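The protein record passed on below.

***
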Amino acid sequence: MASFTTQIKDEITKIETLRVESLAEVCAYIKTSGIIKENELFLFIENASVARRMFNLIKRLYKINIKLTIRTQKRFTTKTMYILEIKESVDEILADVNLCVKQILDYSDEERASFIKGIFLACGSINDPSKSKYHLELLVNEEDFAVLTNKLLLSLNFSSKILKRDKGYMVYIKASEEISDFIKMLGAITSLFYYEDIRIYRDHKNMVNRLNNCEQANVEKSMKTCNEQLANIKYLRENDLLTLLDEKMMTVIEYREKYPETTMSELADIITMETEYKITKSGINHHFRKIKELVEKNKDIDK
């Protein structure tokens, strides 16, 4: 089964683009992964769709012949390598690449997006949102090019960052919304729908979990408060201090002992319904704060 990254690349390689955008994409791809040997340009590509796109775009842009070699490597798993060998117009191509890299920040949004697309086709990956954390990365060899790539992403309103790796530099994005915008910028609409479906599901699940955690925390907090109130009532009773309390406080104590697991809000509602004493949650809290002060004061006297 193809990876999520492969699905995205397969989808965007089928998109038709204007000449200036195609040139920016090709220049970015060559800058990222092109190899020069004895005035020949080589592109080693593992993805068949990407190899087909680069072959067609370069041939269309420069009207040249390109030698295509397909090699199959069998080592644990079978891997196919597509090698594009370019002997014609190499100087012209490299001149375009250098000029594009030098001026890309001044280009239009569409051309900058196409340049990023070329980098992504060469060295980009996006984690499958259904299997792991949200993560997009572009792994390039040169620090200067990593800085340029990051500036391009920032200019397109992405919050990307650079990280030094053992092999090269990683320009990455972690925010799920921005990765979604990145996929949209590439034009991979089918992949975008898949990504958004998973993201909505995960966000909903996380929200439910957070709500459950909050509810559980509130229950635990309420039980802790109830136990503290009951402990203070027990102390007053054992030390014959209940006579110091007025009638309203005694009503609150009576109902707390009668309903030991209710929240203060629920206790206030019960007292209001069952007695002539209308009280709110804050009123209940006020009484138990006074009770606590009385207990602490008496303990200090005992000491």
Notes: The chain has two domains: 4-187, 212-302.
